[in-house]
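Example record

Each entry pairs one chain with its bound ligand, N-(5'-phosphopyridoxyl)-D-alanine.
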Amino acid sequence: MSRLAYVTGRFLPLRQARVSVEDRGYQFADGVYEVIKAIDGEPLDLDRHLARLDRSLSELRIPKPLVGRALEQVAREALRRHPLRFAILYLQVTRGTAARAHAFPSGVRPNLVITVRRAQFPGEAERREGVAVRTLPDLRWGRPDIKSIALLPNVLAKQAATEAGCREAWLIGTEGEVREGSASNAWIVDGDGRLVTHPADRRILAGITRSVVLELARAHGIEVVERPFSLEEALVAREAFLTSTTSLVLPVTRIDGRAVANGRPGAITRELARLYAARCGLPAEFARM
Ligand code: PDD
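Structure tokens for the complex follow.
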């Protein structure tokens, strides 16, 4: 499969696809994005992703690159041109191309870029053993609820985690609370057996996987509370896991080198992984732990 990129109006071979060096995404990280998974060409939760993209755009006062259902149509066309069993669709919208000046330029159109690649879901070892996370202070700006392409603190946190042999970084807020991962949401099962995750306020990104897992938990009688939880609480939690479009529901079995409970994926985590995989139409192996 030769990969293509959609760049403001047309599909080109990936290597020939270009935006200007004066694209404001390149110069100021003045843009937003979405990462969407697709199975056999069908994007999952596309409506939720496009709604979140609309919200990110409007918070930053970037006009929509396409009106009506045109964006959905181009996204589906991109998937059609990349016949893959499991794909990741990447959408990025920047404020546009203009001579470098901080304030919004007038009369520019947003730049839309779409790419598709093969999805890499967690492998068997990560699912069975769970993954390690390391914690770091949350150094991001005040609006991580906007899915902005300004990801430098996330990049640095993920790199620090990787160098420590960990899959993910958990970002700790000023009150000692676990906010979320560098590219995923964070969850625990607390001492009372309740599922806990940070509220979807301005401190975290409201993950689409998070919203689906919350619904699944509630529908299956698992008690859930959206409240901040501290690192201390996470260290003595019964279970921990993370969620994202590409990580699915992934057990966290070590935090800063300390085992979570008995160091094995917990029962509620396994149940939610199974429910999530089934809900997405993913093969059962993606929930085998
Ligand atoms: N990351 N929190 C952050 C900071 C994220 O970057 C992501 C997603 C999530 C989970 O959101 P969702 O369930 O909608 O994928 C939470 C994507 C996958 C990325 O940047 O690659």
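The chain has two domains: 4-118, 124-287.
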